Amino acid sequence: MRRIALAVLALTLPGAAGAQAYSCAVPDRIEPVHADLPSARQPRRVVPIGSYTLAISWSPQFCRAGADSRPPSGFQCDQGNRFGFTLHGLWPDGRDKEWPQYCRSTGILPARVVRPHMCATPSAQLMQHEWAKHGTCMTGYSPAQYFARSNALYGKLRYPDMEALSRRPLTAGALAAAIAGANPGLTPQMMRITADRQGWLDEVWLCLDTRFRYQPCPAHQGGLSASAPVKIWRGAR
N- to C-terminal Cα distance for the chain? Predict the structure, then answer.
């Protein structure tokens, strides 16, 4: 395996952390992917872009849920890799409640585009999906430019001590405030916290304007209310 040199931080270290992947080794052979196409449930929709959402996922919960509801993701959840927040994707939003998706046809992403970003988005198939559904709606962007943009936004994020937060009662508003406190220019009103039906942290959605600057999220975007309890799964530790 080819070892990717990243900042490796223990979850127990105090203060804001910049390590999204605590340990990540990209295999020499990238998993094969299949085309991701529009469907009756997910149709092609071309509408003007009014804003963006940067979605990040809490990997320990993804791997825990995947053991019961999804085929296991070997690279992300096994093979000795350890992830904290991973990059789900950069999503163009519309000017109201509808968003663009599957704006133009595309082929299979080449491995040379996928490989550099596997420690941010640890699934080649997810990258295929994100480019096909969302990236194709960004005018003038190639796959390489789309992933470079989304990874630059993801890479500058810093995080509070998630281990400490996981060990005390927590609300979505308190988690948002903790994340905002680690990132200058970000406020709790500029993100949405999502969780599963049992209240376990799933994702954080960060709201951006058309120049990729943080902005308050629209009321219709959803997510937990600030007072809703949320739990953080930290694994078997």
Answer: 26
Return the closest-CA partner of residue 179 out of 202, 153, 159, 154.
Answer: 159
b/e code 119-142 from CB counts within 10 Å (16+ = b): bbbbbbebbbbbbbbbbbbbeebe
Beta-sheet pairing, 21-23 with 85-93: unpaired
Which H or E run contains 175?
A: helix 172-181
Name residues whose C-beta falls within 8 Å of residue 35's C-beta, 6 or more positions apart in sequence. 107, 108, 128, 132
With CA atoms as reference, report the closest residue to 157 among 21, 63, 49, 4: 21
Kindly report the pTM of this predicted structure: 0.90
Please give the sequence-ordered ranges of beta strands (E in DSSP) within 177-219, or none if there are none. 191-195, 201-208
| Rounded Cα distance, 203 and 5, in Å | 25
| Burial of 215 per CB tally in 10 Å (0-12, 13-18, 19+) | middle
The CA angle 125-196-165, to the nearest 5 degrees, is 100
pLDDT per residue as tens, the chain (237 positions): 444 433 333 333 344 666 466 789 998 888 899 999 999 999 999 999 999 999 999 999 999 987 544 454 678 988 788 999 999 999 999 999 999 999 999 999 999 999 999 999 999 999 999 999 999 999 999 999 999 999 999 999 999 999 999 999 999 999 999 999 999 999 999 999 999 999 999 999 999 999 999 999 998 888 999 999 999 998 754
Residue 88, SS3 per DSSP: strand
